[in-house]
Amino acid sequence: MSQLDRLTTELANPRTVDLDRLDTLHVLERLNAEDLLVAPAVRTALPRLASAVELALDRWQRGGRIALFGAGTSGRLALLDAAELGPTFGVPPERYVARLAGGANAFLQAVEGAEDDRQAGAVAASDLGPPDVAFGIAASGRTPWVLGALAAARERGAATIGLACVPRPALADHADVCIVVETGPEPIAGSTRMKAGTAQKLVLNAFSSTLMIRLGKVYGNLMVDVQATNDKLRQRATRLVSDAAGVDAGTAAQALLDANGAVKVAIAMLRLNTTADEAEQRLQQADGRLRVVLGEA
Predict the structure, then answer these.
(1) CATH of domain 231-293
(2) Whole-model pTM above 0.90?
């Protein structure tokens, strides 16, 4: 057997060997049954995921960046996660980035050979340093481009996190924290965009969302650092201020106008009956933590 053939994600799944004999509904039911196995597998990895968040939190608070590295589906999921953090949490794009084997164009069109270039992975991580975090994602746990990125990042003093979907992944040797979500054989043998991809999406969502919560970018369950850059988000911002401050939509909209669209500032203004400048100053002193400013910590 080759090294690849030994991976659990490459094995034939005994529960789906008859997929091509089934009608449409039964194919979908069989695929859904496999999907139902993913969330429990992620749950078993939560202690390691918590360690990864704490590691990233420490580096972030020291001014570091988080860089995600992946090839194929793993890289595309990383790009999706990073792209959402700006509008949702007000994260500067240079602080939470994703790098895809083959470059940004590989998001739209597969560049399959790029994942084998370990040296190119090392180059992709060459700008990282001690304050930063490199997060390598590979369903197989052995993608050379990702291993090269993690190894180079570690050599330069960056903290390293790995995510894989097989037991005892090779990237564990290069990761300070290794998150393993064992998703087992795919419904279509070797198609790791399926269960492994779902697991990676769940982990990446949980990682970035929990990090943002721990940074004070969520009040209760409200995204109070949302950037209102379109009509939908402006309506959402108004609703957030209205809910958090207990005021009507008109009052919330005016407060947002006075606060230059900053949801946290608008809430603090209304709750503390103060000016936008005073509310903003208090938030800066509290490192942006609205609950501290409101005396609820």
Answers:
(1) 1.10.8.1080
(2) yes
